[in-house]
Each structure stands twice: as C-alpha cells, then as structure tokens.
Amino acid sequence: MAKTPKYVYFFGAGKAEGRADMKNLLGGKGANLAEMVNIGLPVPAGFTITTDVCTYYYDNKKKYPAELQKHVLDALKKVEKEMGAKFGDPKNPLLVSVRSGARASMPGMMDTILNLGLNDTTVEGLIAKTNNPRFAYDSYRRFVQMYGDVVLGLKPVEKHELDPFEVILDRKKHENNITKDTDLTAEHLKELVQEFKAEILAKTGNSFPDDPMIQLWGAIGAVFGSWMNERAIIYRKLNDIPADWGTAVNVQSMVFGNMGEDSGTGVAFTRDAASGDNVFYGEYLFNAQGEDVVAGVRTPLPIAKLKEDNPKIYKQLNDIRKTLEKHYKDMMDIEFTIQQGKLWMLQCRVGKRTGFAAIKIAYDMVKERLISREEALMRIEPDQLNQLLRPIFDAKEKKKAIDEGRLIAKGLNAGPGAASGRVVFSAEEAEEEAAKGEKVVLVRIETSPEDIKGMNAAVGILTARGGMTSHAALVARQMGKVCVAGCGNLLINYAAGTIRVAGKDAIINRGEYISIDGSTGEVIVGQLETKPSEVVQVLITKTMKPQESPVFKTYNDLMTWADKVRRLGIRTNADQPDQAQNAIAFGAEGIGLCRTEHMFFGENRILSVREMILAETHEERQAALAKLLPYQRDDFKGLFLAMGGRPATIRTLDPPLHEFLPHEADEIQEVANALNVPAQRVIDKMESLKEFNPMLGFRGCRLGISYPEITEMQARAIFEAACNVSKKKIKVKPEIMIPLVSTVEELKLQEEIVRRVAAEVMKEKGVKIDFLVGTMIELPRAAVTADKIAERAQFFSFGTNDLTQTTFGLSRDDAGKFLPLYVEKEILPIDPFISIDVEGVGQLVEIGTQKGRSVRPELKVGICGEHGGDPASVEFCHRAGLNYVSCSPFRVPIARLAAARAALKEQQSKAVTAAKPAVKAVAKTAAKKAAKPVAKKAAAKKPAAKPAVKTAAKTAAKTAAKASAKPAAKAAVKAAVKAAVKTAAKPAAKKAAQAKAAPKKAVVAKKAGKGNVKTAAKKTNKKK
Q1: What span, in angstroms and rounded, lies between the C-alpha atoms of 306 and 284?
Q2: How many other C-beta atoms lie within 10 A of the C-beta of residue 812?
Q3: Closest C-alpha to 254, from 128, 137, 339
Q4: Catalytic residue among 54, 487, 723, 864
Q5: Angstrom distance (rounded) from CA 197 to CA 213
C-alpha cells in the first residue's frame, strides 16, 4: 500500500518537523520558521502546507489532495495545544495568520491575511481575554480589510483609484477630526468593521464569512491563487523563478504588536541592505502590526531608537541578529513582534540587498572568516557588478543645483546610484514612456506589488511614505534601481499630476525632470549630469588613485579571487584603441572580435569606401582600396599597441556593401560631386545592391570571394601594422577571422589570400610574425560540417548573434515585434538574443566544437556575439569546453565573475558525484556495525548507534572533502554526506533501540507485555 504523502509540517513547542534545507518543499519562510525553532528562538507555533499541494492544486483544476483537510486539522490541534487557545472558540479564540512562502523570496508579490478567526462572537472573547476592546476591534477591522481585499476581491480597479477601505477609513477620521489611525476609538473601529462588511457586499456581492474554518480555507485558497496573480508572474519572469516551483502556505498563531504602547512590530536586516555596512539596520512601530511597516502606510522609527525605547528588547534582538548570522553565514532579513513586552520572531530569510551591498557583504564576510572566497563568489550575481560601475551625480553639478535652491526634499537613501528622469505617477505611464525611449522616475505615495512593471521600466523610484524596508525600497534594491523612500514632505496628487513640497512654493508637474540621489536620499528639481563610478574613475578616467577608493579595493580583490578560480578566458569586442584599453583595464585578455567595417565610417575613409563600391573595374577598385590601406594600417597599429602582446582577432569585411552608401538625395549628389561621377551612377549601384534579405545576402566571405582585392588590402594593412609594431620590440598576435563561411572551400580561398599576403609583407619588412587564420561559425551548416572546416581553420569563433538568427530563421532587427510575446506566453523562456538558446543554438556550438577538435585537438574556440557578456551564456560556454568568451568592455568584469562561478559549480557537482559512492558505503558499514544487538551495552548505552554512525560519516566526509580541491566543493560534499548519514542512521538507530530488550532481561520484558518493551528496559536500568 502506497504511503500517504506528508502535506503539512508542524513547528513550535521547541521542535519542528522541518528544517532550513527543506526550502523546495516548505518554501523559504516555512523552512526558516522551522529552523528558528530548531535553534531555540521564540517562534509562535504554526504549520506549513507544502509546495507539493500548490503543484497539485494547479494540476487538478484548483482542488486539494483528499488527505489535506485531515492533515491541516491535526496540525491545528497541535497549535491549539501549544498556544493554549482554541480556533473559533468564543471565550478563548486562537487567531492565525495565513502567509505565502515560495522557495525564492518574492516580497509583496503574493498575499497575506492576518488576525484570521475573528467574527462578532470571537471578538468578544478576545476583549474578555485581553481586557482591551480597542485592540480587539483594531485587529477585527484589519482582518476584514485584508480578507475583503485578498479573498473577496474588493480593491481599486482603475490606476488612479484609491483603496476602497482607505477611503472609508479616511472618511471616518475626517468625520471625527482625527489625523492618526491610533486615535480611533474602539467604537470607531467597531463601526468600521460593519462599514467594511457592507462595502464588500455592495461592491462584490460577497457576504463576509463568520465561520472561522470557512475563513481559513478561503485564505489558504487565496494564497495558493496569488501564486498566479499578475504581479507574481511578472516578478518570476524578471527574476527567473520557474512557475512550477509553487508556493507553500504558512498558518501561524497570531501575536499582536497592536496591544498598546508596550507592543510593536518591526522588520530588520542584520546588516545595512543598501550599503552593506555591518550595522543592525531596520525599523519598527509601537502599537502596530507588521503590514503597517512594510506597506509604507506609516513611516516607522529606525531600529537604533529601540535601544532607547526598550533596551532589553533591543539587546535580545541584537543577540538574535548575531545568532542568525553565525548560523546562516549570511545577511538576514527578520520580522518580529513585541507583544506586551515579549519578543516573538515571525520570519527570517536571506535578505534582499543592492548589488553594491551584496558585493560588500560577501567581501566583508570573507574578511570576518564567516565564509570562504569561493562562497563569496557564488553569493554575488555577476550582473550585480553593474551597480559598482554605475554613474553618480557630478559633485559640482549637484552643488550648483543645491546652491540654486533646487534641492526640494530629502528622504531615505534606499537604493544607491543616481538617476534623472521625467516624472510619472503610475506604473502604466512608466511603461508607456520607457517604451518611447524616455527615462522616467516613478513617483508614488507608496508603491504596491501592482507597480512592479512600472518599477522595472523606471530609472528611479521616489515615494512619500515608507521606510528602508518598505515595498518600494525592497524591490528597488533587488532590481538595482535608484530609490528614495519615505520622503514625507512631498504632497503627491495623482489626479492633478503634480508634486508639491510642504512649506515650499515649488510644483513639479507630470513630465518634468527630477533627479534623485539614492545614496543620500536627496531630491532635486531638474536634470543633473552624472559622472563615472569610483571603479571607472580609478581604471578608466584615472581621476582617482586606487588607494583613495575602498570600493575599488573591494572590486579588485573580488576580481583577483575570480581569476584564480575561472578556467574560461575573457576577451573583448573592440574596434578602436580606446575601447581596447578600457577592456584591458577591466581585465580583458585579448580582443575576441574587431569589426573592421567600423573603421570605414570615419570622415576621411567613407569616401574611399564608396569609391571602391562604385568602381566598375578591378583597377578602379584597387585604386580606391589603396587610399584606404594607410587608414586601416594605422587603425591596426593602434590596436596592436593597445593590446601589448595580447591576441587580437580581426574579422575581415562582413556587412553588405549597400550599408556604406548614402540614401538621401542630397547625400547622393554630394558623393557624386566628390567622386566626379554622375548621381545616376550612385543610384544605379544602390539599386544593383538591393537585397530582399541582406542578412543572408552578399556579405561576409562572399564579398572577399567576389572581390579578393578587399581581403588582400585588409590582410596587407594587418601585417604591415604588425611588422611595424614588432620592430618596436612589442609582441603582436594577430588572428585573422573569415566571416560567414558555410563550406571549407570558402575558407580555403580566403585563407590562401591571407597567407600569401602575410608572406609577402613579412619578406618585404624582414620580420616574422606568428599569426592564426580561423573562421567565424555563424551558420548551422558550418557547425555541422565543422570537422571539414577545421582542416583549414586554426580557430573557431562562434558568432552567436547570426547563428541565433539563422538557427531560428528570424531577423534580430524585426523580431522585436513578436519576441516579447513569445517570452510572455512562455513559448521561449527568454529572448534568445539576450541569453543563448542552449537547447538549439547551444547544441550547434557543442557539435561544432566537438567536430572541430576531432580533426584539430588543439583548436581554440570562443564566442564573440553579445552573449559573451551574459552570465548564463558564459556558464554554458564553460560547460561546452570553450577557451574564451568575448564581450563589450564594460561587461568584462561580469564575464570574469560568471566564468569563476561556472568553474565553482562544476567543482561542486564533481565533488558531490565523487563523494556519493564513498558516503553510501561508509554509512552502510556504520549502520551495520551500530545495529549489532550487543545486549549488555545496549541498555546502558542508549544512543550508541547514533555516535557510531556520526563518527563514521564524519570520517567519510573528511576523506571526501580532502579529495576535493576547493572549499566550495567541500561544502557540497558535506551536505551530501549529511543527507546520506541521516538516511543510513534511521534503521541503525531503530535496530539499536530494539536491541535494548536483550535476551538477558527477557523475563522483565515478558512481564511488561509485548507492547511495553521500553518501560521494561527502563525498570531494568533502575534496578541496576
């Protein structure tokens, strides 16, 4: 008979059925609640409904497994016992919260209901129990408001519509001349409950349920349902969270922060989530519930003030902060409630942080010896390095603006960096304007999860309410957006489209420029110029010395750690010496793609290029190319000097010739006059070069085959430049790359020209240059016949931009019309021009690499498309065994870190695989030894089996870990060993326990009866 799956996991009473490593099943919140109980922190009892139920729910037309109801009721009884209250009891009611909890944190994207279990009867029981009518009715009105919104669907419909419940609440305050929610009396709140219920019925047609059990199942269904709401779907897509993961549901006993001034609630981070500084950072409110802090409705107090207001609770929290960091070895985000002076922990999770903070925290934790360097590299997402390279406001420009009185307000510095943009007041406006190419700053009284699309589209976010842990701050930090929150002086009027400032005459209208400094919290009217980050100032502009910048020191050490680990080489795509120099400063090891056609567009050259295209004879074409030769030679000389002996892959002419010709009538006449030819000749040539599909037309090696003199000129320019630089005792390593080959014959014809010209130039100059000739694999045919092509090619470089186009049969320039829809409908997981299509294009890369190396084992292989700077694509290239990736200069640091992480992941995977057989064997042996029924020792040494298994497993772990070269791999081995030992130890422990009832004491066991062996064993021990 099949075993019934376990759908519900209890936590509380100092023990939990779950643990931290069960996030896939219990979600992040559920796993960490269990873990906090396991490490002895004060957590209100509750239970977690697993993510398996969510998956079942969506796979079975929103129905639950048959066993779920019993599992929930059994767990609820345990909670009632632990908390000394009964769910739905009129005299001693247990109230619960119902919260979501996916395995990956999705702050604010799914739904929560607090104070569940209240109705007109149980609220009286709560009053009698607490002797606090105001608290009871405050909890009741909050519950009706949340349940009405989340479960029954009473919420704003239009983008500028106010929350219906807030409208009623504001009206009640206005009628009674009250400004603060806390000044509402018990009677006011009681009236609000009935008014809320009446509004729900009037607007939705739904009656508010009084039965607590109906409330509970309604809330559970709403939380599972919120996994597929629009904002959750958008968030998952933005953060690459698979839909099939599902969410868990956490049902937990309520503790109350709104029971008076000795109660409160707060959210905190064990370090500063914006800057990464090692300080306790957070906010709290007295006489409030958790949603008041995170929703931004009330601006909370900084956690440091709690040290003055309640030193005892502050110390307890600070001790818990240290405990959590030591246990999890990471910066944690915590939620807590103080109920009448007692502290309760409601949640802990690895905290969201800015990219800047992520880097600093990982770096500092290495210095504090909490984590290894390898772990630090795995903690930092490569794209987070962008925030280290982001612009900041120019200090002079900013000072000038402040002196002019344009600084209008100051809020909380919630997301570092600087941003200027036009003011918009809604997510929809932000999307629309950003789609037009406008930079916008999204201005809201407070953001909500529905604003997620607009926040993503905006360059910056500004809110009037909310603190450092508000929705705006949290999500902005994760997105890497500049954010200023809690700017209380701003009076925002959505309908009028204006921002006024309390006490000032300034008015900012929709569409006007505003500048926000996320590092200082300053809000400035107008557009401000920015300047490079400190890293760029040290490496590129040279306006700052390395020792003057702690930020650069962190960045530099991090890159050094990454370089020690990575196997994959990192090159750059550069066409000019300054680009090459920037890339080298960022750590590039060579040029992976020099597009020679980019050199043709300079003022002095384009006319010669056009003369070459318009030439009607071989002689005319050669004459025009002779004019281009010195320019090309100087270009390559500059590149070789910049590279300083590093390899440079130079692609011969690739684009169709029509791209170099003018298109407007006046430009056509201008070219005709300059070249002393009739305008009609220019027009005729343009007509002759027209193509239905230029991408697949007369370009690449086809140009060089039709006009070999073009390849000759470019080869001569390359080798003359190489020889001239070599004479200066500077090494040069040219790699000539022939584009768009589909057959080995095409490559052969072009290769012969290159080698012939090289020999001629080296003979003329009396210099020998080592060089390679290879090809760019951009066509599927080239990939599948790579073994033939490798007979002539000394290297391959996959041009993944064109390979993607030709594999999918679509144009990158035109695909923007439908590709976003493909991603939205999950036809494709991601735009294949952003991240390499591993299943299709990736397979061609692997086939091409394997086939090429089957003929030429030493074949050097890289990619030079834009995918070279995409972390996921870099990881694929590592797995595929490529030698290098090439990307734009400012993506080089990202590629270096991505390559290091790819190497570490591979080490971890290999270590786990290698450890499994050893662990299994050792654990099996340990279990056997521990389980032997040694009758005499069994009774006296009750836990003998467990230490035996543990010791054996520990030895296995040490042995396996030594065999693993890197600390990151050791961690993976330990985890695998731990899991294996747990499994192995269970039967061993069971057998050892059974062995206690040894034959020697059989008489006692017999007297005790078959069902009471343990009791008999205890009696025997006592007699001894």
Answers
A1: 8
A2: 17
A3: 339
A4: 864
A5: 18
H or E element at residue 116:
strand 112-116
Q: How many CB atoms lie under 10 A from the CB of residue 68?
A: 20
Place of tokens 């343009």: 686
CA-to-CA separations, 979 to 221, 268, 516, 912, 972, in angstroms, rounded: 33, 32, 49, 12, 11
Look up the pTM and report it.
0.74
* CA–CA dist 47, 51 (Å, integer): 13
**What is the β-pairing status of strands 522-525 and 795-798?**
unpaired
How is the chain split among helix, strand and coil, in percent rounded to 5? 55, 15, 30
Looking at residue 271, its amino acid is: R
Average pLDDT (356-360) is 91
3-state SS, residue 266: strand
DSSP class of residue 700 equals T
**Rounded to the nearest 5°, which phi and psi values hold at 676?**
55, 45
Q: Are residues 639 and 648 in contact, defined by beta-carbon separation less than 8 angstroms?
A: yes
> Could you give the 3-state DSSP secondary structure of residue 281?
strand
Per-residue HEC secondary structure of 829-889 comes to CCCCCCCCCHHHHHHHHHHHHHHHHHHCCCCEEEECCHHHHCHHHHHHHHHCCCCEEEECH
User: What's CA 468's distance to the chain center, in Å?
Assistant: 20
In tens, the pLDDT along 836-892 reads 999 999 999 999 999 999 999 999 999 997 799 899 999 999 999 999 999 988 889
594 part of the active site: no
Establish whether 864 is a catalytic residue: yes
Per DSSP, the residues of 527-565 read ---EE--HHHHHHTS--S-GGG-HHHHHHHHHHHHHHHH
Helix (H) or strand (E) holding 500: strand 498-501
DSSP string, 204-253: H-PPPP--HHHHHHHHHHHHHHHTTSHHHHHHHHHTT--GGG-EEEEEEE
- Residue 573: DSSP 8-state: E
Amino acid at the residue 357: A
- Between CA 429 and CA 421 the distance in angstroms is 13
CA distance 766 to 457: 59
Calpha distance 189→254 (Å, rounded): 20
- Measured from the Cβ of residue 76, the count of other Cβ atoms closer than 10 Å reads 22
CA distance 517 to 797: 42
In the block, which residue shows the tokens 């030992």? 981
> How far from 159 is each of 426, 428, 534, CA to CA, in Å?
7, 8, 40
Report the amino acid identity of residue 82. E
Q: Which amino acid appears at position 215 of this protein?
A: Q
pLDDT, tens digit, 9 for 90 and up, residues 713-758 = 999 999 999 999 999 999 999 999 999 999 999 999 999 999 999 9
Catalytically annotated residue among 71, 471, 658, 867: 471
4 DSSP assignment: P
Residue whose entry in the numeric block shows the structure tokens 């300083």: 644
Q: Smallest Cα–Cα separation from 807: which of 776, 784, 825? A: 784
